[in-house]
Design the sequence.
């Protein structure tokens, strides 16, 4: 299944801006009350702003020309009151929308992150962590900016413009039409260019994602970089990404800034038209000075917000581009769903079986070919074979990190896909080839996703560890359960990490325990300790051990040879060794 986000968004093509916006607005239905409040504030604001010029024009024509200064003062007081209300309405609108924006940001980040938690391992194989981080951090912020700063201003400017437009037409239809023609041109220009602007913004966001992926990769691998003295290589690669990002950002900036001067030009043209035509109308006696002043004010009210609108439109396009990148993630469905349709049918008595399993990480490249085997309860199985033969892949299918492309994996005779994740992970413990520990303490790491011992004190937990025969392992850590662990800082060795992963898996008391080269980095003495612990696990525990060392293999009940995507029973240890030596099946 294809999980590559960049390819997916290309396939999806351009979602129409309207549709994307609709989906986005549906997300904030919970904010409806706040949105209405903000809308009221903004409409009050625009309405009062619109009334201003009319009152001024009225005062000039009615009172100033008649010398009625008392009324002039009264109207000035009225205006002042209006401006105060405008101030508070503006303040309310900004705070409300700022809140909505922040809450949206919070929710969006949460939902993307939960989505990421649901997605299968295949998704993470196909996408770079850095790009995902950029989507969670950067792209969501574009939407926050849109909501907290742009949306209401957008509505406000549209309301002011519509109102002014109406005043312009009502006061004098001919003059009004002349004043509005440049506005129409602006509208056409915006429609024509906005697709292009959005595309430029999308390219810019994508390259920001790429840059962040580059940073992540080199930070993660800094040791290799230093060991091979390849700093220049990564510097060059970073430089390239940075260049690309720079160019894309400049491109987006150019696109976003094109509106401002164009809008400005048309606005000035409109003012000029109104002025010339208005003076002509006054000379013919069709118009008064007061009206012309009011009129110019309305023309300004109509065109000034356009400049603002230009910036808002750019923000809007950036938000839509960000939203596209976010919605591909939100729209993904995990293919690792729990099957519920069929009742669970017990097909055989083995603890775990593969029935004609085919598997590949990507389409058209099969890694495992038609694998069938049964693992019985309480037995120990060894998987041996050359590197790249498919051992880890087989183990990953046992733990359902992936689903087979064809065939089925049965756990206790039932399709493994019918188990809920909780049931499944309770039954199967997996010690990965590359153990991962979280920043915290040994205690936190061995209790990871183990609710059973959560409330235990250190003493109680130590007793549990002792009962599981794990105390010799714990003794290796100088501060015991409280030994600090840093996930990246390398405070402990790889072998020690494997030991912690081992305790983590064993304490969950699984029915089936998989060890993927879990002893590869452990000295022989500790390995013997591990082996004893494995031997003392409950009788019914099935062990699947992937290993290279002879002594680990020889105690197994059965040995399977895994090579070139085939899993075959090797029978005796000698036979298995023979196969290993010759790299294939010895007849
Ligand atoms: N995440 C992955 N994506 C694509 N191919 C993979 C992935 N992991 C392993 N492979 C391929 O699958 C094959 C088997 O790998 P693996 O099961 O890790 O071998 P082993 O554990 O026996 O060394 C190899 O050819 C490897 O290139
Ligand atoms: Mg492996």
Sequence:
């Amino acid at each position: 299944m294809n999980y590559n986000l960049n390819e997916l968004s290309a396939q999806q093509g351009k979602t129409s801006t309207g549709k994307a916006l609709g989906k986005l607005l549906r997300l904030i239905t919970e904010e409806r009350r706040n949105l209405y409040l903000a809308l009221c504030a903004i409409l009050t604001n625009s309405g009062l702003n619109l009334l201003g010029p009319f009152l001024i024009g009225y005062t000039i024509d009615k009172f100033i020309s008649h010398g009625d200064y008392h009324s002039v003062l009264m109207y000035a007081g009225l205006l002042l009151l209006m401006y105060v209300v405008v101030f508070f309405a503006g303040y309310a609108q900004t705070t409300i929308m700022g809140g909505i924006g922040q809450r949206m940001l919070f929710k969006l980040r949460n939902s993307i992150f939960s989505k990421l938690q649901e997605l299968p391992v295949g998704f993470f194989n196909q996408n770079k962590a850095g790009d995902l981080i950029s989507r969670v951090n950067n792209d969501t912020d574009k939407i926050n900016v849109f909501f907290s700063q742009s949306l209401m201003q957008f509505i406000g400017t549209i309301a002011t413009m519509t109102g002014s437009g109406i005043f312009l037409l009502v006061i004098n239809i001919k003059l009004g039409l002349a004043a509005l023609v440049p506005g129409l041109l602006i509208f056409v220009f915006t429609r024509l260019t906005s697709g292009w602007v959005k595309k430029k913004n999308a390219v810019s966001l994508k390259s920001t994602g790429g840059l962040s992926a580059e940073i992540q990769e080199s930070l993660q691998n800094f040791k290799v970089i230093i060991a091979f003295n390849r700093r220049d290589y990564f510097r060059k690669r970073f430089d390239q990404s940075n260049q690309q990002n720079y160019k894309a950002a400049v491109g987006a900036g150019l696109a976003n800034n094109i509106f401002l001067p164009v809008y400005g030009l048309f606005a000035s043209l409109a003012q000029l038209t109104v002025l010339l035509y208005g003076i002509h109308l006054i000379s013919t006696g069709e118009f008064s000075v007061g009206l012309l002043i009011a009129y110019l004010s309305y023309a300004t009210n109509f065109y000034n917000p356009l400049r603002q609108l230009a910036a808002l439109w750019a923000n809007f396009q950036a938000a839509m581009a960000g939203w596209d990148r976010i919605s591909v993630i939100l729209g993904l469905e995990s293919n690792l769903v729990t099957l519920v349709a069929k009742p669970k049918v017990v097909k055989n008595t083995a603890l775990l079986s593969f029935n004609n399993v085919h598997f590949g990480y990507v389409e058209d490249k099969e890694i495992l070919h038609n694998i069938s085997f049964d693992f019985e309860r309480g037995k120990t199985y060894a998987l041996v074979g050359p590197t790249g033969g498919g051992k880890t892949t087989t183990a990953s299918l046992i733990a359902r990190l992936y689903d087979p492309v064809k065939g089925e994996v049965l756990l206790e005779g039932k399709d493994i896909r019918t188990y809920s994740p909780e049931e499944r992970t309770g039954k199967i413990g997996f010690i990965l080839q590359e153990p991962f520990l979280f920043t915290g303490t040994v205690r936190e790491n061995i209790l990871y996703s183990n609710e059973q011992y959560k409330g235990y004190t250190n003493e109680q937990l130590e007793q549990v560890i002792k009962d599981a025969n794990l105390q010799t392992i714990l003794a290796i850590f100088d501060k015991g359960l409280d030994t600090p662990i840093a996930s990246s800082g390398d405070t402990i060795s790889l072998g020690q990490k494997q030991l912690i992963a081992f305790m983590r898996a064993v304490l969950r008391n699984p029915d089936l325990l998989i060890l993927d080269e879990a002893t590869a980095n452990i000295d022989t003495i500790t390995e013997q300790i591990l082996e004893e612990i494995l031997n003392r696990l409950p009788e019914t525990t099935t062990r699947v051990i992937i290993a290279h060392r002879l002594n680990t293999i020889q105690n197994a009940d059965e040995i399977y040879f895994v090579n070139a995507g085939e899993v075959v029973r090797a029978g005796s240890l000698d036979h298995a060794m023979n196969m290993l030596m010759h790299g294939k099946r010895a007849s």
